[in-house]
Amino acid sequence: MKRVRAIRGATCCENTKDSITDCVCMMFNEIVLQNSLNAEDIISIQFSVTSDITSLNPATALRKGNVRINVSDIALFCTQEADIDGALPFVVRVLVHTYMEQFAVIKNIYINGAERLRPDFVGK
Questions:
Q1: 69-72 LR contacts (CB < 8 Å, sep 24+)
Q2: How far apart are CA 11 and CA 33, in angstroms?
Q3: Alpha-carbon radius of gyration of the chain
Q4: What is the pLDDT along the chain (124 residues), one digit of tens a residue?
Q5: φ and ψ at 109, to 5 degrees?
Q6: Contact 118/110 with Cβ under 8 angstroms?
Q7: What angle do CA 28, 21, 25 make, to 5 degrees?
Q8: How far is CA 74 from CA 46, 58, 86, 91, in A?
Q9: What pLDDT is stored for residue 123 in this prediction?
Q10: What is the pLDDT of residue 92?
Q11: Nearest to 78 by CA among 65, 64, 60
Q12: Which of 1, 7, 24, 88 minimizes the number of CB atoms within 10 Å of its CB?
């Protein structure tokens, strides 16, 4: 039986359109692959960015980038992270709400230096 689940991820990137697009699409493609997702099951995708990411909205990057599944009918949203002293810079985080099997193991994806945010997820 499927139910609503949430998958997290994060990536670090440079503040350029190309880097944001490449890193966001790489992160999303890995989430799709590792969790066996399809477009019909994804409800929404929410991004957050640190205040130093100003060149491109990651939702735009995902829509225009090279991704494994069609995201054109999926609700996408982006917000800015709280600006915390000492926080890891140049980070894009994602929260994917999707229907998945109730007992499926969720694989959260942290890449490109963002592994420091959640070392407990690395290698799982």
A1: 69/32, 69/37, 69/38, 69/39, 69/42, 70/39, 71/39, 71/42, 71/45
A2: 16
A3: 14
A4: 999 999 999 999 999 999 999 999 999 999 999 999 999 999 999 999 999 999 999 999 999 999 999 999 999 999 999 999 999 999 999 999 999 999 999 999 999 999 998 888 776 5
A5: -120, 120
A6: yes
A7: 15
A8: 10, 14, 34, 22
A9: 64
A10: 98
A11: 60
A12: 1
> What is the number of other CB atoms lying within 10 angstroms of the CB of residue 6?
14
Mapped onto helix, strand or coil, the DSSP state of residue 113 is: coil
Contact 67, 25 (CB under 8 A): yes
Tokens of 99: 């229907």
Specify the pTM: 0.94
pLDDT attached to residue 122: 72
Placement of tokens 């420091």 in the chain = 116
Largest CA distance in the chain: 43
How many Å apart are CA 47 and CA 29, to the nearest integer? 15
* Separation between Cα atoms, residue 120 and residue 124, nearest integer Å: 8
